[in-house]
Amino acid sequence: MGVIIKSEKDIEGIREAGKIIKRLFEELKGIIKEGITTEKINNFIEEFIMKNKAYPVFKGYRGYPAASCISIDEEVIHGIPGKRMIKEGELVKIDVGVEKNGYIADAAYTFEVGIVEELKKRLVKATREALEQAIKKAVAGNRVGDISHAIESTAKKYGFDVIREYTGHGVGLKLHEDPVIPNFGKPGVGKRLVSEMTIAIEPMLVAGNPATIIGKDRWTVITKDGRPSAHFEHTVIVRDGAPEVVT
């Protein structure tokens, strides 16, 4: 499948899906606290999306059983919600995809629960900054490698590393479209960015070694050394000028 260049009608539809995620993450700031289970968080997410006449596109995708991915500390991505109770000092990563009227937006956010240790605070700051720097490169005429390099170089600046096996991607009409957007790479290489491409940029940074393993549930991606990770993601419209963030 090649890159899908979106029409303005498509982009407006993706914007509407993105607005739901943006409002959802604002609501979650008051929900994610010590003592709540990941299952309850997921139920809130699913109900919120459905109330907005949209669908949680992760649910059923390749057999995934929940409306969201909730990953804690050493869990990088694809954590399945369940009976686990959130604790003080944890990093809780929420990844959500929303489909509304056939259009899809995808985003992730790392929440700090109560007082977290300084290492985790720096990791969250670095990951958020990596996303901000990467978005600045999502301009027509640049290349995928420019985005990838922005993420990796920001991680290295803070003394952290990036996950290599899992990537950002095109999004909009399907959850995963071309191009693949790695979190590491060289500037000036890779597929050229074209105006009206829609992409999900999602840096995943780790405090230790970037090697990962898959958990017993066959979904959850975990750092092999058990060190913490952080994850941020936005759906972005590539433009000739400043990129447009829809989530």
Number of helices: 4
Find the structural class using helix and strand composition.
Answer: alpha+beta
Overall average pLDDT = 97
Helix content: 25-40%
End-to-end separation in angstroms reads: 25 Å
Order of helices and strands: HHEEEEEHHEEEEEEEEEE
CATH class group: Alpha Beta
CATH topology: the name is Creatine Amidinohydrolase
Strand line-up across the major sheet:
8-7-9-14-15
Uncertain stretches of 5 or more adjacent residues: none
Give the CATH H-level superfamily.
Creatinase/methionine aminopeptidase superfamily
Number of strands: 15
What oligomeric state do the depicted chains represent?
A: single chain
Protein described:
The protein has 247 residues and is an alpha+beta fold. The chain has a single domain, classed as Alpha-Beta Complex (Creatine Amidinohydrolase). Helix content is 28%, strand content 25%. It has helices at residues 8-28, 38-51, 118-136, 144-157; strands at residues 55-56, 68-72, 75-77, 91-100, 103-112, 161-162, 168-170, 177-181, 198-201, 204-206, 212-214, 221-223, 229-231, 234-237, 244-245. The strands form 4 sheets. Strands 8-7-9-14-15 form a 5-stranded antiparallel sheet. Strands 1, 2, 4 and 5 form a 4-stranded antiparallel sheet that branches. A 3-stranded antiparallel sheet has the order 3-12-11, with no helix packed on it. Strand 14 (234-237) and strand 15 (244-245) form a beta hairpin. The chain is globular, with a radius of gyration of 17 Å. The mean pLDDT is 97.
Keywords:
single chain; 247 residues; alpha+beta; Creatine Amidinohydrolase; 5-stranded antiparallel beta sheet; 4-stranded antiparallel beta sheet; 4 helices
